[in-house]
Amino acid sequence: DIAITPPHKPSYWHSPGIEPMSAMTLGQLVDVAAEQWPKREAFVSLYQGHRYTFAELREKTDILAAGLTQLGLSPGDRVGIWGPNSSEWYLSRLAAARGGFIAVQIDPLYQPPQLLHALTKVGAKALICPGDSFYLRLRAIIPELDSYPESGVEIKSDKIPSIKFLIIFSDKKYRGAYSFGDIMSSASPDSVQKIRDLQTLIDPDDGTCILFSSNHRLVVPVLFCHMSGSMCGIFTLRYGHTLVVVSAAFDTKKMLEAVIEVG
């Protein structure tokens, strides 16, 4: 038999680092980044052709947050974000933080049963997602959508009583849904200023997001909808780095091309 000698060191190594923890909200971090690096490139989505500086990122985020507030959302409301990695996903996540909403980050691979569970479990008041196949999956759990006009309205669902608003990434018209552009264009200068004033009232200990476990091993690429993609991507704001989205789903060739193009 082989004798196994236990290691003569503690299992926990305390190493706090040289930078103290900051009592700062994600929304406040957007302000810090925009003030410190206003003209530096903050976000690039190569497959969409979108590029935003830190100042532009804050501007778009605040306009979206203000539009959602105009729609009827209030701090503490749960907002589902369901879709692949994209500029709209990232803007929606930051807008939720700026508006004091709780982002419910939903896996884009969810089928109707999982989506129904996620939305009902948290009591989501709004859902932001792409159209096409995502909308088809939504119709399976909210059949009432077929009775609405091809424009944004307050919806009602027997299966998801909490849901009131559906926002689609596309400008294409869908029954019962607002387009992303509708929400952005509805924001007034006063409502945008209210979002900026709100940043001092949101507490770092307030809830900011809800994640669902897949109960499976993590596979790459990581998605915005869960911890690695969401938190690691958002933390580029802390140090003024650029977040690059290569494609909606993993593509080896595009990933290597992106490394060459943007380093």
Automatic annotation (TrEMBL):
Gene3D superfamilies: N-terminal domain of ligase-like. The keyword RNA-binding does not apply. The keyword Ligase applies. Keywords: Ligase. One of its GO terms (molecular function) is medium-chain fatty acid-CoA ligase activity. PANTHER family: ACYL-COA SYNTHETASE, MEDIUM-CHAIN ACYL-COA LIGASE ACSF2, MITOCHONDRIAL. This is Medium-chain acyl-CoA ligase ACSF2, mitochondrial.
